[in-house]
Design a protein that fits this description.
- By secondary structure, the chain is α/β, with parallel strands linked by helices.
- It contains 20 helices and 19 strands.
- The strands form 4 sheets. The chain has a 6-stranded parallel sheet with strand order 3-2-4-5-7-6, with helices on both faces. It has a 6-stranded parallel sheet with strand order 15-14-16-17-19-18, with helices on both faces.
- α3 crosses α15, α10 packs across α12 and α11 packs parallel to α12.
- The longest helix is centred in the N-terminal third of the chain and has 15 residues.
- It is globular, with a radius of gyration of 26 Å.
Length: 574
């Protein structure tokens, strides 16, 4: 067939591949997407919903939130090289979060008759894909001679193949707007074939089953089992069947917090360690396994090929899907001999030393100032089993999560993720109640104006809890650790660390037509969370809680830290 345009072919192939949303930022060379979407909707043809985003960082982060709930691929579109650059650290998080997203950006026209603005010369780069090449699995620049639909199907095939991750497509202005021949039927990633991992090498499966059964004290260390709800149930079954302890991160809800086999014991207490899809299961500078410990390593990429230098050892590695691997191991352990059965029985009679579970039992006190621990305790009491929680600030161990797919961390290290991710996650989950926990620095990184606009425009309000400590940990406590006797930490505002004056995030939210509340007493945490839930659920407006915790280094809760600086007479700065 002949599509209306290459942009129409791109959208058709994306829809055929399971893409439901195109997180869109405007650009002069991207108008073809707007028209192609309108034409498809007019004809009643499947096409991704165009979600207008005021900032590219927010667009890509919201797309991550969508994919981590839906499991489907997603797409973004940004303006030329500068829009692509505006994605910023979100590209890092997309890679380390294993998100199957096609990141697209336009490319300026190069024909003389189309170069009607000086920016078209300034936006032309020799190799636009090089901006993201270290962070994507595949990149391509569409040409007028390409089958655009096939190119998109191929890109999404790569994005969905284990280990999942982002891909990049550049679309020149001349290509997007003009008719182009495409395949019929419209190709999709699924038509090309998306590979599926199995249980791994049978020899490694048998060896792991034998080692777990015979070990004195075995442990499974995991980070990403919770991406697949099936794997969560299988991990819990294996832990209970064999009495195996589990060290699970909070990247996802990998093991229900009321499961008794959670462990925080030092790694050198275990004689058998099975790493199950964890990019950094231990840091040798801080802890390491015993020299005689047997280590098995399992996952979609058991050598972490994304990392140039990777020194963590293993006795056996196999490429496998965690759920399939756990199923195979469970099938093997049924053949344990009498001696091994006695060993398993002894282990099952003894839960980990850390206690029966990681479920929280604390309550917020009636007096005092908020602290990260008290905020976590209040969240634990407030959240319902189906609520979604995104976080990027404090340890959420005491916030009990027992349902797969309700706890999300970014996977990478670029801040400003939580709020936009919660927005995309809530939309993908059909409007599920979502709470985003973030720091004051992280909140500013995440373009809060754009996040609040996105939530209002698309009826996807979330509750944002800003843990406001008045600055950046790296510029305060880390500075003090590196230079304990230095001059920088003695300066009243710790230049480069403290955010002085501290922005009034609650007032900012109210100025945007949202619910905003400042919380400075621990006793007010529970009520504030309830009022925020009401604003989101009943009034359908975003809610921002600006929760003050003691300032880094000084421990100050003085309202003066929010005062505007006094400038000398005649100084018009600020």
């Amino acid at each position: 067939m002949t599509a209306d345009s290459a942009a129409a072919a791109v959208l058709a192939a994306a829809a055929a591949s399971g893409v439901q949303r195109l997180w869109f930022n405007s650009g002069s060379e991207l108008t073809s997407f707007q028209e192609a979407s309108a034409q498809a909707r007019h004809r009643g043809e499947p096409t991704p919903e165009v979600i207008t985003c005021p900032h590219e960082h927010v667009a890509l982060t919201a797309a991550m939130g969508e994919t981590m709930v839906s499991g489907r691929p997603s797409m973004t579109a940004a303006h030329a090289d500068l829009g692509l650059l505006h994605h910023g650290g979100a590209i890092h998080n997309a890679m380390w979060g294993d998100h199957p997203i096609m990141i697209m950006s336009g490319y300026p026209p190069t024909r003389a008759e189309s170069r009607t603005s000086p920016v078209f010369w300034k936006q032309q780069r020799w190799d636009q894909g090089s901006i993201v090449r270290q962070y994507v699995k595949w990149d391509y620049k569409l040409s007028a001679l390409d089958d655009a639909a096939l190119v998109v199907a191929r890109g999404l095939q790569v994005a969905l193949a284990p280990r999942r991750g982002p891909v990049y497509l550049a679309m020149p202005e001349e290509v997007g707007r003009y008719p182009i021949a495409t395949s019929d039927p419209v190709p999709s990633a699924q038509m090309l074939g998306v590979p599926v991992l199995g249980p791994g090498d049978s020899g490694v499966v048998s060896e792991v089953a034998r080692r777990l059964t015979a070990a004195r004290r075995p442990v499974i260390v995991t980070d990403r089992v919770g991406v697949d709800p099936r794997a969560v149930a299988l991990l819990a079954e294996l832990a209970d069947t064999l009495g195996v302890e589990v060290r699970a991160s909070r990247y996802r809800m990998n093991l229900p917090d009321d499961n008794p086999w959670h462990s925080t014991a030092p790694l050198d207490e275990f004689d058998v360690i099975v790493v199950l899809d964890h990019p950094v299961p231990w840091m040798p500078a801080l802890e390491r396994p015993r020299d005689d410990a047997w280590i098995g390593w399992v996952g979609p990429d058991p050598i972490e090929s994304r990392v140039p230098l990777y020194e963590l050892r293993a006795d056996a590695r196999t490429t496998a899907d965690p759920a399939a691997f756990l199923t195979a191991v469970l099938a093997e352990v049924g053949a344990a001999g009498p001696g091994d059965a006695d060993n398993v029985r002894r282990r099952r009679q003894r839960h980990p030393d850390t206690g029966a579970s990681r479920a929280a039992t604390g309550t917020a006190p009636a007096s005092g100032v908020p602290t990260p621990e008290l905020i976590a305790a209040a969240l634990d009491q407030h959240l319902r089993p189906d609520d979604l929680l995104t976080w990027e600030v404090f340890d959420t161990t005491t916030v009990s999560r027992t349902k797969p797919g309700t706890l999300f961390e970014k996977g990478g290290s670029s801040l400003g993720w939580s709020v936009a991710a919660a927005t995309g996650a809530s939309m993908a989950a059909g409007g599920a109640h979502a709470v985003a926990v973030t720091g004051d620095g992280s909140y500013l990184f995440g373009s809060p104006d754009s996040c609040l606009w996105l939530q209002q425009q698309h009826n996807a309000p979330v509750v944002t809890v800003v843990v406001n400590n008045g600055g950046y940990r790296t510029g305060t406590t880390t500075l003090a650790a590196h230079y304990p006797d230095g001059l920088a930490v003695t300066e009243p505002t710790v230049i480069g660390g403290h955010l002085t004056p501290s922005p009034d995030f609650a007032a900012h939210a109210r100025s945007q037509g949202c619910y905003g509340e400042q919380v400075v007493r621990a006793a007010d945490l529970a009520g504030a969370l309830d009022r925020a839930r009401t604003a989101v659920a009943r009034d359908r407006v975003p809610a921002v809680l600006d929760v003050w915790v003691p300032e880094h280094l000084t421990g100050s809760m003085d309202p003066g830290r929010r005062a505007r600086p006094v400038h000398p007479e005649g100084n018009t700065d600020g």
